[in-house]
Structure formats: C-alpha cells, structure tokens
Amino acid sequence: MVDDDVRLMLAFRGGDDRAFDALFERWAARVLRFLERMVSEAGVAEDLVQETFLRVWRARERYEPGARFSTWLFTIAGNAARNELRRPFRRASHESLDDGDEAGAPLALTGEDPPSDVLVDAQRAGQGLEAALAELPERQRSALWLRAVEGLSYAEVAEALATSEKSVKALIHRARVTLAKAMGCGGSG
Amino acid sequence: MTELYEKLCAFLDGELGEGEAAALRAELARRPELAARLAELAAVDAGLRALPAGAVAPDLRAKLERRIRAERSPGAARRPPRSRAGPGRRRRWLAAAVLSAAAAALALVVLPRLQHRETALANVEPAPIVEPAPAPADAAVSEDLPVIEVLDVLAELDELEGVGSG
C-alpha cells in the first residue's frame, strides 16, 4: 500500500508543486526536531532542514517509491547532518562521529544497582536526557531517535544509516542503556 | 547478559518473532528485575518523545523557495561546480597563485623602477627636468593588473577561509 507521503511525492514528481508544499508542511517540524538532536544547534538545524528539502526537490525526477517516504527523507536529513558534523571546525564539539566497533564492549548489567525509581518522570529528567543524548555517538543517536521517536523499523533504520539490522540492534541497545543511566536508572546493559 | 538485554530492546521495538516474544513474556513474568529493566528502557523512549521540539521559523519555507527559484531560473547564479581537489589542495593552489601574481607584480612594477633608478644614478650629469608625458591608458592598466589579480586572489582566499570556519 502506498502511503500518503509517497503519493504526494509521486504527484510532485509529476509536476504538482502543491504536493511539495504539503510534504514540507507535514515533515519540516519533524525533520527539524531530528536535526536539532543531530547537530545540537538550532540555527544550523534550520539550515539543514532547508538543505534536506532542497535535496528532495532536486531528486524529484529520480524519485522511485521503494521505501516509506519517511525512511527516504530521514536518510537525506541524516546525510546532511553527517556532512555538517564532519566539517573540521565542528568536530571538537561532536567528537564521536563513529562508534568504532559498533557492538563495542558490552555494557555490564550487574543487577547490583536496582533502579531507584523505575517510574522516573520523563519530563523532569528531560534536561539530563537531552545532554546525554548529545553526548552519544552520532550513529547511536540517529538509530535510537529514528526508532524510538520516528518509529522506523530496524530494517528502515539500517537503510537510513547504510548499515546492517544487526548493527542497528546493537546501536539502539547501547544508546538506550547509556540514556537509562543518565536518567538515573540503575544502568542496565 | 548483553544478548538478553538486546532482546529486551528488540521486544520493546516489536522486532522479535512471535515465538521469541512469547518466551520473553513468560520470562518477564517470572523475573521482576527483568521487567524493571524493560521499564527503564521504555522510559528512555518516553523521555525522548517528550523532548521539546523547536518550532519551524515562519520564513523557512520562503527561504527554501528562494533557493529553489535560484536553481530553477535559467541563468541564475549557480555555485561553480565543486573541485575534486580537497580544501588543502585548493588552498595550496591559491597560495601558489598568490605568490605567482605577487612575483608578476614585482617584475612588472618594482623592477622597472629599480632599473630606472640605477640608470639615473649612473648618470653623472643631472637630466633636464621634463614634464613626464601622460602614460598611455594601456600602460596604466598593465601595471595595475597584477596587483588587482593579487587582491582578487586574496579576497577569494578570505572568502574560502570564511566558508571553512563558518
């Protein structure tokens, strides 16, 4: 079944500029929200939203509906963010561009520190969570955000990050464990 | 252990097959500490979804439209195609160009003047003072040109510096 966004993109490919407007209306805020977490600077994130939709506009004639529109869109946005993060003058503030070994060393779950409060208030912990999210390696951050917030499947996240589902599973797990610790949970792994 | 907790994540994400999911559900019922871990992981997702979203600036669509229009209109100023050379190579090339232009400026502007000075010093008798004839326009241009080129290249270098650090 073709989703509404794919239908709009096909209409845009066919020359209907209003379809592009509709896609922008539907997705700009979510792309901005994603990019804000990727680059941690609102102004840069806004520029990257423009860049993302400009790339969509440029790619309209080559567009083929092979995946969900959101997967395609976040792939473009993620690439734009990675290009930005790779700029040499940014690297100091975003040190972890890659995760090295994606699976990495296992984070120990000892069970020695039971969660002090499992029903932690997500709103109250928001600030700490935001900071911890910014500290995550870029691929962990992207993978978890696309899965947990945007609802992409592991296969779709893998496509967006040009990696395997197995890697995505490890990236998401490690990201969640790190953030759980930051939120004051016991720190499982 | 890690494998078990990766499985918890996959369970949370609805990525386990029905058989594995059923087995894990049974294990969760038996092991409250495992259920607590699952709740922690779920709390992370809830926290992420609750993070504030920045508002899209009202003029963002208009800015995008301007960029689209610039690409659309024939003859619109487009960026020159990016060189395959990396910034380092481009910078070295520019530095070489600056040096070449500076050398050319030196050769065309400074050396003839030095030669003229040496000739004048060699003359024992002072030359009669003559109003210099106005230099032909071409000569002025040819003397200034290398300097202008140097300035242009320096400006380009500055611009690149600005882009790199922006």
Descriptive tags:
heterodimer; A: 189 residues; mainly alpha; Rna Polymerase Sigma Factor, Chain: A; Arc Repressor Mutant, subunit A; 2 domains; B: 166 residues; 6 helices
Structural commentary:
The complex is a heterodimer of chains A (189) and B (166). Chain A is mainly α and 189 residues long. Chain A has 2 domains: 4-91, Rna Polymerase Sigma Factor, Chain: A; 116-182, Winged helix-like DNA-binding domain superfamily/Winged helix DNA-binding domain (Arc Repressor Mutant, subunit A, Orthogonal Bundle), CATH 1.10.10.10. In chain A, 61% of the residues lie in helices and 0% in strands. Chain A contains 8 helices and no strands. In chain A, helix 2 (17-39) runs antiparallel to helix 3, helix 2 packs across helix 4 and helix 7 (154-161) packs across helix 8. Chain A is globular, with a radius of gyration of 18 Å. Chain B has helices at 2-12, 18-30, 32-50, 60-72, 87-122, 137-165. In chain B, 10% of the residues are buried. Residues 80-87 and 119-166 of chain B have low confidence and may be disordered.
Ordered list of secondary-structure elements with their pairings:
The complex is a heterodimer of chains A (189) and B (166).
Chain A: H1 4-13, H2 17-39, H3 42-58, H4 69-85, H5 126-135, H6 138-149, H7 154-161, H8 165-182
Chain B: H1 2-12, H2 18-30, H3 32-50, H4 60-72, H5 87-122, H6 137-165
Q: Please summarize the sheet with the most strands of chain A.
A: none
Fraction of helical residues of chain B = over 70%
CATH superfamily of the largest domain in chain A: RNA polymerase sigma factor, region 2, helix turn helix motif
Instruction: Work out the radius of gyration of chain B.
Output: 36 Å
**Uncertain spans of chain A:** 91-114
- The helicity of chain A comes to 55-70%
- The geometry of chain B reads as elongated
Strand content of chain A: under 5%
Which blocks of ≥5 consecutive residues of chain B have pLDDT under 50? 80-87, 119-166
Largest interface, with counts of residues having CB < 8 Å to the other chain, equals: A-B, 57 and 38 residues
Mean pLDDT figure of chain A: 83
